[in-house]
Each structure stands twice: as structure tokens, then as C-alpha cells.
Amino acid sequence: MKKIGILGAGTWAIALARMLANTNNEVIVWSAVESELNALRSTHTHPNLKGAVIPNSIAFTQKIEEACIGMDIIIFAVASVYVRNVAAKSAPFIKNGQIIVDVAKGIEENTLFTMSQIIRDEFKKHNSDRKIDIVALSGPTHAEEVALDLPTTIVSSCENIDAAKKVQDVFMNTCMRVYTNHDVMGVELCGALKNIIALAAGVSAGLGYGDNANAAIITRGLAEITRLGTAMGCDIQTFFGLAGIGDLIVTATSRHSRNNKAGYLIGKGLSPQEAIKEVGMVVEGINALPAAVILSEKYHVEMPLVLMADAVVNHGVKPIDAVNSLMTREKKPEKII
Asked: 95 catalytic, yes or no?
């Protein structure tokens, strides 16, 4: 049995908390929002995880130190825009040799840091000599299905492969199969950028386009992600694995996908702000767009789908005009990288 602290109380946090508690681990969940914790305690359910019951054994706290001190594993499960703040709050309570698992997906706009880089940056500000292992846990894993014990696969990625294997041991069970991977940057890039492609796929569906267009967006979207990742020194195999094509497929096709739904609503005529409000949860693809555009320029990588998604979301371009622009680009041979 392991002691596990989970920072965050959203759908992914609670789905993981439930799974880990049901495999005989001691789990405590932290949130800064008292009303959120009170609702979880009293109802033993999460409003966005239909049919899932939260075990009585899970503890809840508003004191972040209680979810950090003495834990074998600490999971960062907040939205990407909150990762830096939560890392700063938790930094004083992180011990030397701690294993951190990050399940947030995104890229910080001003630094271009991935989530694990943000966490490490904040921890170094508090204690530059402290050694920690940060594992990126990513893959095709909708919380709604994990919370119902449906078969799921995921990747545990860390430069220290022993740490990745420790996380693999803790998370692996009859419902979740965990693979290891050393390419942390590649895994995290996939996790952030697939949300943008899923957003584009949703826009396509909202415009009334069909399976042909969706398959094209997924395929060419993967090419864009792969080109950028290899330009940044990542392992090409990562992009054709669970964290890459696996996560991209599920996010670009599933009814559970916030990014797909937001894109669909934009394609139907809602503004990006109206779409976010309608979805009612964080749309990470929209958050990732500014950094993705900067990375495309920095590494001189052509990413037309990403740029058109940005044009629609952040620059007022009509979705139909973005499609026409993509379809009338200059003729080219098909290449992945």
C-alpha cells in the first residue's frame, strides 16, 4: 500500500483517486475550494463522473501540506494554467527523493515550459539542491471511462526509468495497463498539442463535415505534432504510441472530449468564449494555442492546422474561411517529417 496525495479535485483527479483507493492505496485529495471538497465528502460523487462512486476511504483536505508530507507519490492533477501556482504552494513540503506524477497537459505561453518543467522550476526556487523525479503520465484516458473501471492504457514517462517503473507498479491493475517511456518532452508535447488538433476536428464536425475530414485532420495533425517534436529532439516513436496517436484519436473523436465539443460549438457559430462557457470546464486546447504558435515559429516547423485553429480562436477568422485556406494551400507531397 502506498500513500498518495492528489493535488486537484477535477474529473481526472477524482477518477484516479477512486482507482488508486480501490487498489488498496491510502489516498488524500487536496483542493483550494472548500465548497468543492464539501460536495465530494457529502455526496461521494463527482457531478461530471456519472455512475462513479467515491470510496469512503479517500480523505479530503484544504491544507496542501497534508497532501504532500509523508506521501510516496504526489499527483499534480490541476488544469495547466494552475500548475505553477500549485507547485509554488506545495514546494516547501516536498521531500528530497519525492516522486511527482503530473497528469496536467499544456505548455506555458511565456516560458514555453511543459508541465514537468514548470513544477521543477518552482521547486528549484525553494530548494535547488533537492532531488525529485517527475513522471509525466499521459495517454488515451478519458476520466469518465477510468472512473467506471473500463479498460485503459497509459504511458509513465521519466528520464529516470526506475521512477517511471515505480509509478507503473502503483497505477497498473486489471483496468489500467501502464507502459514506460523515457521521452518526457515528447510525451508532454503530445499531451498538449493533441488538444489543439481535437479542437480543429470539432470545428470540422460543427461545420457539417464528415469522417473523411476528421481522418484527414487526425492524420495531418499527427504529422504537425511529430514534425515539431522531432525538431525539438524528441523520439519519433513517442508520436506513434499511446501518448501520441492514441491520445490524439480519443480526444479528436470522443463525446467525452472537452476540446472536441468546444470546437464543435465554434463550428456551429458560437464564439470561443461562448463555447468555453457552454462546455463548463477547462478547454486545454485553447490554452495551448499561443505557445504552440510560438514553438512553430521558433523551430521553423510548418503547422497549418495549429495556425488556422489559432486564427479562428484568437484572431476572429471564420471557421469556413480557415477551411478554405487549408484546402487551397500549395500542392505538396505527403510527408510526416
From this structure: no
